[in-house]
TrEMBL record:
Protein name in UniProt: Short chain dehydrogenase
Family of this protein: Belongs to the short-chain dehydrogenases/reductases (SDR) family.
Signal peptide bounds: none
GO MF annotation, one: oxidoreductase activity
Presence of keyword NADP: yes
Pfam families (UniProt xref): adh_short (PF00106)
Length: 264
């Protein structure tokens, strides 16, 4: 189904999964705001996507999702350019170093929670009036708006990441379900995607130094067989959920995309 009537805001979309989601949505006809904290990477992504897709359907905004004013500007610029917002994809996130609670640096804890959870809260908070207005304009029901939160195996497992990342991703599920329950009757739905290991991501950049080896070894012992799924599969789920009616049917759901890792 074409997404040609949809305006979709994707955070953390200058590389990896976020970029793949943005590209998949553009290929389906959507207008997309890409956003990232890294201006150089964002500019490169905008240039490359503009070579394939109409620049009229693209907006690039540098954003720090931990800064509420920066997020406000992101939402405002999206509405100024495209006049409304149909879907938000909260993809921006950072990894921890696999540290357990006894060894987790407080600075790392705060950084992970600020980006992964508070950032998604800021984006959803400031987009919500526009999502509600769009749902009302289109009549709600199958024509409603949608918030997609990118979770992880750490959203439902206690031992696939460090404590900070695990708490942040569990929190995203809680926000997904609360948003679904409160705003669903008003035509704004929420779904979490929970990928496991993924190919073609920048996650390994987080482990250049300071990795908690005991924490990592504990995870490897608990789950010895790692399976990576293509990021394009996760992106296709995001596009599918953005179709009319699918968000309503999936409201409050958590879709696991792991290749059965960890084993069910």
């Amino acid at each position: 189904m074409s997404l040609s009537t949809k305006v979709i805001l994707v955070t953390g979309s200058a590389s990896g999964l976020g970029r793949c989601i943005a590209e998949t949505l553009l290929a389906r006809g959507a207008s997309v705001t890409i956003s990232d904290i890294n201006p150089e990477r964002l500019a490169t992504t905008l240039s490359e996507l503009s070579a394939t897709f109409s620049p009229d359907r693209l907006l690039a905004v540098q954003v720090d999702v931990t800064d509420e004013k920066s997020v406000q500007l992101l939402v405002e610029q999206t509405v100024q350019r495209f006049h409304h917002i149909d879907v938000v994809v909260n993809n921006a996130g950072i990894m921890d170093k696999f540290a357990p609670v006894g060894d987790c640096d407080t600075g790392m804890w705060e950084s992970i929670l600020n980006v992964n959870l508070t950032g998604a809260y800021y984006v959803t908070k400031h987009a919500m009036p526009h999502l509600l207005a769009r749902a009302e304009e289109r009549g709600g029901g199958e024509q409603g708006s949608l918030v997609i939160n990118i979770g992880s195996t750490a959203s439902f497992s206690g031992l696939t990441a460090g404590v900070a990342y695990t708490v942040s991703k569990h929190g995203l599920v809680a926000m997904t379900k609360h948003t679904a329950g409160y705003y669903g009757p008003r035509g704004v739905y929420s779904v979490a995607l929970q990928p496991g290991g993924m190919s073609e991501t920048r996650i390994t950049d987080a482990f250049a130094s300071g990795m908690h080896k005991e924490g990592l070894n504990a995870i490897k012992e608990a789950h010895p067989k790692t399976i990576n799924v293509p990021i394009s599969h996760v992106a296709r789920y995001a596009a599918f959920l953005s179709e009319d009616g699918i968000g309503q049917s999936s409201n409050g759901g958590c879709v696991t995309i792991t290749g059965n890792w960890p084993e069910a």
